[in-house]
## 1
Amino acid sequence: MKSDDGSFFEEPTGEMPAVSSTDPRVTFTGVERAADTDDAFEDEPSMLPHWTEAPTGQVPIVVARDAATQDDPWSAIPAPAWREGEADWVAHEDQFDASFLAGEVREDDTRPWEFAVTPEPVVEEAILDETPRPEPVRRTRTRRPATHHPLAGRAVRQGSTRSVSLATFTGVVLALLVSVIFLAGSIPVSVLVLAALGLASAEAYAGFRRAGAHPASVLGIVAVLTLGIAAYNKGLPAIGAVTVLMVVFGFVWYLSAKQSIDTLDGLGATIFVYAWIGVLGSFAFLLIAPMYSTSRHGLAYLFGAVVLTVANDSGALFIGRWLGRRPLNRELSPNKTVEGFIGGTLITIVVGAALLPRISPWTTTAALEVAVALSIVVPLGDLFESMVKRTLGVKDLGRLLPGHGGMLDRIDGLLFALPTVFYFVHILKLG
């Protein structure tokens, strides 16, 4: 091949030329032949094994071979050395213990450099599983256990001892007295309603006390009377304000109660009677309140509610005793029948259509609509009181009215009728 300057040279072949020691053209300086050296390289047994050999599992250790001298403090530190013979492994075994790297149990199939690690037992979890959690200690209360029947320990209801003739005579006298009071005006009617609600709430609280509860009777009666007066003067907003005060004063009342008293039962009974008699009964004052009534119309609406309620109760009583066969609700009140319910509805509608339109501002349409509505809610009010009396274990909550029981037994249906008439007249504008 020709180069750039015009000379020729051969292309390299990659082969090395043989060099002969006898060739005079090749001279080696400072190099001796391996065969001519006196000391040949030998693999002494003290050296480390060759890297191609299998591992032995032996651990190197520093062994002190020379005795330490007292003059040089550094001589106490042994010079590093390797374990070479069997004696080094036996004589200095106490200087290094490799067993701490392994577990307590050594498996047979493990290699010398492998160690079987035994997991530590979980002691804390075993203790937690074996040791039961202590039961919480609760304060002794008078509330009955949930496993017992809720009516266990209550008084046993007695059979009815009412006389129909006595009840009729008492009812006629009450009707005449109430009619005269209604003719006297709003103030006498308000006093009559306050007296009825106060007596009814007192009877209810007495029934709860006989059942073992501890209601705040005085606080409840005062709240019922206060709500009636406030509703007459302030209207519907008075119900919310008095109810809030009732709950707050109820909490304060039971702050000083004895530990043995079940305050939850007591406060619950207090608020229950207040809501049942006080709140529902306050709609009588709303019907005759000056802000909702003009030209004595409120007295006419309230009188119509009383008349329709009495008609429903009387029709259900007489027709039920005459034709009643199927109980309306055997558990709550076995004396109330389906035939009595139907008869009371018919009597209510007839009285509403025949009597109420003669009283201004009642109209025939309004009277019929309210009569149908009260035919449903008045029996519900009667059944509601029967449910309460059955829970308390009493037949009648009072004996104020001969043949009728207490005041609450007489106005139980009227309590449900009052808000119904109020909303029909003032919200639906049926008047």
Note: The first helix runs from residue 86 to 91.
## 2
Amino acid sequence: MSTVELGKFSIGVGDRFAHQAKAQLQACILAEQAGVEVIPVWNKSNREHNFIGSEPASTRAAADAAVKALHWTKPYFCDADHINLTTVDRYLASCDFYTIDVADSIGKPASADSIDAFVKGHSHLIGTLRLEGIDEAIEITPELLRRTAEKFLFAVEEAGNVYRKIEDAKGQGSFIPEISMDETDAAQTPAELLIILAAIAAEGVPIQTIAPKFTGRFNKGVDYAGDVAQFRREIQLDVAAIAWAVRNLGLPANLKLSVHSGSDKFSIYAAIHEAARQSGVHLKTAGTTWLEEIIGLAESGGDGLALAKEIYTEAYAHREELCGPYATVIDINPAKLPAPGTVAAWTSPQYTSALRHDPHSPRYNSSFRQLLHVGFKIAARMGCRYLELLEANEAVIAKNVTENLFDRHIAPVFLGRPAPAAFLEHAEAK
């Protein structure tokens, strides 16, 4: 049986309420028309399914319907996002891409025998490794090899257990495996990443993407917070380390980086494009589509604007509950959150200007945007009332979703085009 392979460029498109699949796919069609194939991967985490009360089958159904309606003939996938041994069963029937999240296992020790065997079996990694296309070498000492094994080997073994469970259920080569370790406290260095890849190869997991944690903050729905030059150096080294691992460790030839919480990171898109134009990249967006739904409702005025205001009022009242699960990936300044009474008096342009991710605009409010980003649970509680307004305002919402995904994400990352002027000026200023 042939192995299912992920293309060079792919984009994870979250769709909280499974209503924007066509609009998201349209952005990939625009990419194809511009000369680059970008494979859509619809992703939704177990946490989000639980918050909304949905099942993975709904994500699959929406993706299949969009593909049929728009006559998409390229590959596409549905991602069981951030799963582990306790949650993977829910996704076996509907998904063909599995993001195996091992962040909670990092730091837990493997057995002493396993660590000793790994270190002994990988002594060839010790020394100076010259990476193709990179002036800077990677130095691996015996101490670093053992320390990295002590920190990450158990997590890799857990990933192996999850992978084999999926393989037993679905068959070898019938799905895309990814290992994710981004939702942890400390970034992995390129040297650690190379050792981790060696452990993954030894565990027999044929990953096609890997999602490390980078330095800086990847807060949801807003721009990268960190040193852009440092990120550029880091991602170049990571890409070179992956290429070395493919050549020397027997990992799949199409193995590439996966950048999680990658939506709206305008200031680093040029660096991602530069580093990954040869090897490819998977950019996973998170919640940017849901925010375009709210922007579309607010733009529509009337009942749509009223509902958008109500969602903010409820999110403001329940902000501690909403923010808790996302504390490591948001950075909200409570002093910059407008009072609900103030928002209730806003016009449609005032609301959308505060929410739309245009850092050049004096009205843009990143704290307002981040609170609404995690506030999708409020809309979920509204049930049919929210969904009916989505459907009633589909045209304006779909236009926003497609333009946001193509102009602000696909074009700069995969086509290397400058971001729209406002975002470009912001990135240069940084």
Note: The CA atoms of residues 272 and 413 lie 6 Å apart.
## 3
Amino acid sequence: MFFNIKIYNRLILSCMLFLCSLIGSFAQNNSLVLNGAFVNINNGTWSNPIYLVVNSGQPTAIVRNSGHIISEMEGNFVQLNTNDVIAATDFVIPFGYSNTDYLPVTIHKNSVGSGVGHINNASPIVVSTWGTPANNLLWANSVSNMIGIAGGNELNSVIDRWWQMLASTNVSATFDVTYRGVENTTSNPTGIFNAQQFDVPTDIWLLSTGTGSGVTTGTGTVNNISLIPNGLGISAPFILSSNLSPLPIDLISFTANCTDNVMNINWTDASEINVVNIELQKSEDLNTWTTIYTASPSNQISITNYNFTYNEVSDKVIYYRLKTNNNDGNFDLSEEISVIPCGAKVESLNAFSDGNIIQVQSNFQNSCNVNYSLFDIQGKLITTGNYNANTGNQFFVISLEQIASAIYIFRAESSKTMCNKKLLITTP
């Protein structure tokens, strides 16, 4: 039988306990018992999630004899309020697909937590999982890319299932996940698979963790995935990717600055599998690009740092990008960065986020009006305004109240220049 669940703090379900369980007659029990029932959590979205909450720190917080919990949407969460006094404990969340495949998530918790969301001696662990079509659309809401410098993408290297995890600051844990074999539509389905987490604050894919052999029938498992706590209250999306072509890991950093007419360019990446070389390219108009340096890659799944310096005499804004050439003949391009050459008299606009504060930096030869707008990731206008920027370097502060923690697009524009930038906004 199926139960459609929205929000319950204490719940017992079994095939024998039907209506009485749903109306809370057994609400004194801080556990969820599945004895042949299929609990279907419905209608949760990214912006309006739904939680099935179990207030217990015991490993028996959820007991399954048969049946399972059907999440199958990004916003349908199970929340375990695990108790501080029990650190080294395993918790099993009995997820499943429809009324067929059992897809449990096992959390091996080995420390207590603190910080955001840490209430009444509880360390909440919040999880959801859902399958996607073979092209992996739709991506998890906070994921901005699945293509970059490592050679894989959502079509050839990623199993068609997502997991969202949220843990309080300082909770230390690993976890195991299970997927359906038919969801493994990768180009090397019987190889070794690892998990990768998209780090929302830095907007990059992190290094692979955990391991498991790929399957195309039945169910497969990847074990010992590291859970990196996120004190921002933002769920961390996970996928499973082939270790032969891990999901492209974007640059950890890419910066340029000028001192005494010497341009100093640095970048750091975290994976270079199947890479021939990396070209540093320069442009003054974003149309014509010239390679000024070619780096030899490490070709390892590890953090690699690069540096290049040269004399620059131009008085125009200089743009840089990285072109990563892969063994298969294809290449990937990074986003462009820009820098003002030493002593150049050019005008610029930039923006930075700090919690729920946006700082707009301007550098103008003459005072002028700046218009700005903030959009959510779907393009909906959140706020707009304008201010008068003075001559020289200036910071203008925009304070955002009652806004959800998420990634936003910020646009600022004057009569001569503009800034269009993705920013992470977090609210206390």
Note: The chain has three domains: 2-242, 261-339, 348-425.
## 4
Amino acid sequence: MKDSRYFMIQGAVILLFVALSTAVAVQAAELNESPEVTLLREAGGGKLYEVGGQKMLVMEGCAEEMGYQQGLLLSKEIRHIMLEGYMNNSLWNKGYSKEYVQAQSDRMEKFFPDSIREELQGMVKGLKEAGVDELSYEDLRLGITQAEILHFPPDGAPACSNFACWGKWTSDGRLLHGRNLDWSIKGGAQDDHIIMVWRPSGGIPFMMVGWAGGVGSVTGMNSQGITLGEMTLPSPDVTFDGMPLFLQMRLCLEQCGTLEEAVQFFQKCPRTTGWNFIIGDSKIPDGRALETDAKYCTAFAPMDPKETDATAHRGMVDAVRRTNHPAGLEQLLRLAAAFGREYGIEISSQEEIEAAKPLLMANDSWQRYDWISREIERQPGKMDVKEAVEILGSGPVQASNTLHSCVFDPQNKAIWVANAANNPPVPAWKFPYVLFDLSPWFD
């Protein structure tokens, strides 16, 4: 796990930079292109499927109806993740008090739209009908607010990697978006992994790779070809008085049909802590990297001049990528001003940032950023799903705590998803990536 000062601490270990020039094994891509699809159960407009060993829930209707369908169809999984599995392991067993968690959730709930409250209330109804009476609205609310809470002690922030590329890099010019969620695989969230598809009345159909009991998540795509993945970003400007990450991402997918709308959504929404985002739009195709926190939201386009060698970065044609640090000079200087003295680092100017580049480049996050860049550039015109999957399972991007790994193929209304195992924990990229054809629900 990486806390908010991780890149500065690791900067002292300069020898790690040698790893960039060494050969690293590549995980052979395993793609399940024809998964068996089985309808497990249904209720109203909701249907629960098993697809290649992973569960997929399709919900349809108004907010309360979709919540009810999830509560009824996933009652066992929701009860498990909330009372016995991930929430118990990651919050209560790690020393978070229920009073503290409730207080921070109360602060974030002030930013919930009414539709989200209605969906959670519908989930409570569905659970009760299924015979699960132990879970309250406040319990289910943790499915939205826990990401922010777990980014602060006694736990710490996880790491992730994202890239989107198109045009000159892909085999036919279409946009592909690869994403690793490097969270904890020891908490058991993978036991209640769900591919979730929402078809809101009068709204944009969208999907998210998530977990039972969630009305949002950290990985998703909508029927308009918008793809979205996040990564933790160290920041001195953080708060619980904002819209939690899971809702930022869910509402963006539910409301935004263009890249411009998606960028504007994040610029305008009340944000919490530091997050990087990669947003893709297959219709153009094009993408953006966002560096955000409670106060700032900076967008980077392909070949953006803000992505400069002065901070050991570089813009790319037809590609955007991010890991867990800021590429922008302004963000780096803010971090140095906030945390530098604590670690004996005095940086207050661009010249001092440039002098510190060897320290920055020794950090795991910089190494992942560079690896992704070079792997994309290594094979112009050849990138397809198989090659994207291989990037996610290679070099420093190949993490031991990958909870889920996926490749979005929005032009084909498809996503390829690998999920981690438990007992013993095994990272997601070691498993076959299952094809989810979303066209029946996105058309």
Note: Residues 60-149 form one domain.
